[in-house]
Every structure is written in structure tokens, then in C-alpha cells.
Specification:
The structure is a homodimer.
Chain A: H1 21-36, H2 43-49, H3 54-60, H4 64-86, H5 97-113, H6 115-127, H7 132-141, H8 143-159, H9 168-186, H10 196-214
Helix pairs in contact in A: 1-2, 1-4, 1-6, 4-5, 4-6, 5-9, 5-10, 7-8, 8-9, 9-10
Chain A binds a DNA duplex through α3.
Chain lengths: 225, 225
DNA sequence: CTAGTTTTGAACCGCGCGGTTCAGATACTT
DNA sequence: AAGTATCTGAACCGCGCGGTTCAAAACTAG
């Protein structure tokens, strides 16, 4: 990525043909890989999905492996942005802690459950062992970054006396755990679509527990309603 | 493992044995599938791993798909037992709540991080979408069962006044979330071996947070030491 | 021992894959 | 206009796969 516009940049694209083939190929590749898995995907079909001839694929990306590698990296970049954006709500939240956390959680979950995110995690899980470098990178600038940024936010909130956490990294890890882990089972490893109401419920439950443990006052804010 | 002392030595049999070929094949198949993924595995190699001729594989299990299906189901059965066993510690725990939860959590994590469990989850994640029936069954009698049994235990503890939870199912879900989710990142999706000390730390942190939220007294037991 | 079942190795088949080649079509540049 | 870089379709190659066949072997039962 980042070097997309080297030589052939900046054309206006007709609906067909002159768009940046490379990106079209990478997106199509990700779709096919996500659907069939790496081993079951064939380059032919990827080319078809991208509306491109097979040699074109091999011109832009020499190899099925590097095609996969590149398609995955692109997907990581696309995905991580949405998760990080969800955390913006936590910088200097105005209302009460509960609603800020709950909404942040809900946004994180929506990003987490987007079909692209789920497909990405599935593929990483599936082919990660065969692409250790890719896996490491993806984790570092994906979930790890989200967790770090959230830790920063939580630390600020603790400093301003709105949370009673002492280890922001651990709290961040655990808040994310309370959010995402339940989805594993509920979405059947990403196979089932989870209705938004359920996401909201999970976010609410996570926030509840988190505030019970780390809300101001130490006793947590028991919420009867 | 477990293949070392089979009963092949009973007769003058050479290298090949009279063991239940079928099980040997299933175990070998799981090993190869786990290592290479479904699409990249070839039956030839599975047969070799099982010390068996290729037609024998097709005699016992007619098809690569059903071979996979069956191997996975066997692995599920093998795995779930270990996790359920870890929960035994929670029936009428004698000491304090903290140590019981912590040790239970640690055992669950050890089971969760066993190479077989990790491989199983990886394969489910990888090929689940192509085997929806298998995925559903595996989830139902795997994680779902663990979560349900834990909920039972927690409910008993709440009833006897040792926890202040109101929704055992949710608490079970969240305790498991606090345990397993952090491992996703730390083990790099099961690629990295996590040292036992780290498992202990995660179990401790999970227990800490859980008790802060649901320990007796509502305020949770803040534990300095 | 005989009779019967299972396992074995090796050869075989058809197929679809990853990857390449090439001549011709297409689009941008000047 | 010509010139250049790219894209295209189709054919092609070699290979290894899933799956089968078969006759010889190994083992079991009686």
C-alpha cells in the first residue's frame, strides 16, 4: 500500500477497465479468499471477480502467496481505521462514564462484527500459521494498536478521577475482552449475523461489569434500572 | 502421542500394527489438517502419518470431506473433556473464593492453550464457513457446554452467598471472556506458546476484576497483597 | 491347514490448479 | 497521427491432487 500511485496514477476511471486494477484485484482477492479459504481459492476466479484477465493478476502481483499477503495487508489497513475511530468517543467524554463506555463499546463491536473484520480474523486464524510475518504484523497494527489506544484513553480518565483503574493496559485488555469474547460464541465464529440489539446488550453488559469493578467509588455504580 | 504403546506388539507384526486403524487415521488426519489446513493437506500424507496405505483411508472414511468432518468431531470430544474437568474445582470450593476462581481459571486456560485446542479452534475458524453443521455442533458441545456448566457453578455460589451475581449466564460468559480473550493477542492466535506464568497472571487478573465486580459485599474484595 | 477379511503398494485416471506465453486489442501519451 | 505501455483471451505446460483399481500379501478365525 502507500505506493499505489506510482506510474499509472490518477486516471479517471471508466466504470470498467481503467481503474487502478491493482486495488480491484486486491479487493477481489480478499473477497474470494474470505469465501473459500486460501487453499481452495483459485487465481482464475479472483481474476474473474476483479473483472481482469488472469495474466494481469500475475503482472501486478507475481504470486498467489504474495497476492494473499498483499490482499491481507490491505484489509488490515482498511479495518483498523474503523476500530480506532470508535475510540474517539472516549477522549474527554462529556456525559457520564457509563454512556460513554457503552457507546464506545457498541461502536467497537459494530466494527468488530463487520463482515470484513470477521473475514479478516478468520483468514488470519486460518492461514496465520503459514504466514507468520503477516500474522505478527497484522496483530501488531490491528488489535494491539486498538488496545494501546484504549489504554491511553482509560489512563486519562483515571487521572481525571472518573475511573479507579491502576493498570490501564490490563483494564483495556479486559474491557475489550468483555466486549469481543462473547461475540465469538454468539456469532458462531463469525458465521452468524448478530443483530444490533444483541451487540448493544453485550456492550451494556461489558460496561456494567467494567464499571462495577472500576467505576468511581470502588464499589462500582450499581444500576438498578 | 498415545500411539506409542498400541497393541501391535502382540503378534509378530512388523512395523504395521493391528491397532484400530480408524482411530489412528483420524488422529493423524487431525494433525495434518491442523498443520497445513484443509485445502493444503493431501490424503497421501495423512495416510503416511497414520502408517497406513492410502486405500485404507478411503476404506474407513470414504471421502476427504467426511474424513475431515470425523477427525474434527473426534478432536472436539477429546478437547471438551479437559475443559469440563477444569470446572470441577468450583463445586463446593473449600477455601476462599479468590483462590478457587483463580485456580479454575488457570486450569481452563491451560486446556484452552493446549496445542490441540488451539489447532481445533484454528481449523474451526478456517473451515467452519464451509462446514456449517460441524461448526454448529462443535460450538454447541464445546464452548457452549463449558459456559453452561460454569454458569451452573456460579449460580450455586451465588445462592450460598459467596458471589453477588444475578445473571449466572452472563457472569459465566464474562468470566470466560476475561480469561480467554487476552490469550488471543498474547498467543498470537495460537501461534506462540504462552508461558505458564503468563497464564497464571491472566487468570489472576481475570479473577481480580471478576471479584471486584461480583465479590461478596458488592464493593468487591480489594486485595492489596 | 483352509477360508475369508483387511491391508498394502503401486499403478493409474481425470481434473483443475498455479503459472507462462504470445499475438492482438486497448488505452494513454505526445 | 504514431508510439508505448498495458490489458486481454486463449491456449498451453507440468504437476500434484482426490479417488479408484487390482493382485498380492498379511492377518484372523476355525
Amino acid at each position: 500500500m502507500t505506493e499505489g500511485s506510482t506510474t499509472k496514477a490518477g486516471k479517471r476511471g471508466g466504470v470498467r477497465g481503467r481503474i487502478d486494477k491493482r486495488q480491484a484485484i486486491l479487493e477481489a482477492a480478499f473477497r474470494i479468499f474470505a469465501r473459500d479459504g486460501y487453499g481452495q481459492s483459485c487465481v482464475r476466479e479472483i481474476a474473474a471477480e476483479a473483472n481482469v484477465a488472469k495474466p494481469t493478476v500475475y503482472n501486478h502481483l507475481g504470486d498467489k502467496e504474495t497476492l494473499f499477503h498483499e490482499a491481507m495487508e490491505a484489509a488490515v489497513v482498511r479495518t483498523v481505521g474503523r476500530s480506532l475511530a470508535a475510540l474517539d468517543r472516549l477522549r474527554e467524554p462529556e456525559g457520564e462514564m457509563r454512556s460513554a463506555l457503552e457507546e464506545t463499546g457498541h461502536r467497537l463491536l459494530k466494527s468488530h462484527c463487520s463482515s470484513e473484520s470477521q473475514a479478516l480474523r478468520g483468514l488470519l486464524h486460518a492461514e496465520g500459521p503459514r504466514f507468520p510475518g503477516l500474522l505478527k504484523e497484522a496483530q501488531r497494527q490491528g488489535p494491539q494498536r486498538v488496545q494501546d489506544v484504549l489504554a491511553d484513553r482509560l489512563a486519562r480518565l483515571a487521572l481525571s478521577g472518573r475511573l479507579t483503574i491502576t493498570d490501564p493496559d490490563q483494564s483495556s485488555e479486559q474491557f475489550l475482552a468483555l466486549l469481543t469474547a462473547p461475540l465469538e460464541l454468539r456469532s458462531r465464529l463469525g458465521t452468524r449475523r448478530v443483530p444490533d440489539a444483541e451487540l448493544r446488550a453485550v456492550a451494556r453488559a461489558a460496561t456494567d461489569t467494567f464499571l462495577r469493578a472500576y467505576g468511581v467509588g470502588g464499589a462500582g455504580e450499581r444500576d438498578g434500572a
